[in-house]
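Deliverable D5.2: sample structural annotation.
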Amino acid sequence: MQRELRARPLTTVKLMVHLVFGLDDDADAAAKDLRKAGYIVHQTSAADRCRYGLTDHDLIEAVIVVPDDEGITDAVLLEVETIIRPHGGFFYELSEIDDGYIPFERKTTPPL
């Protein structure tokens, strides 16, 4: 008697990594490299920086959909750190987001 194997449906989670760059850092190159790695990248414009009072910083929110597996957040953080470190950026926050996510619409901003 053969036993039928059924694959569990793959569940995914959408993660957003909030990154901070000084204006002397290369946020544009980091954004390009994050896109190459499969992230959807939202970067503050000069007008956004003024609106948020970030005259000397640039922000990136990088979004990726990944399997909902144990350890996936550590893997995403390691990948992002490897990408942004040569460009001078640093990690501020990682959070799970839903389909209603709006870039940079948050209750808190990084302490700078």
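Annotation notes: The helical segments are 27-36, 46-51, 72-84. The chain has three helices and four strands.
The annotation will be released with the project's public dataset once the embargo ends.
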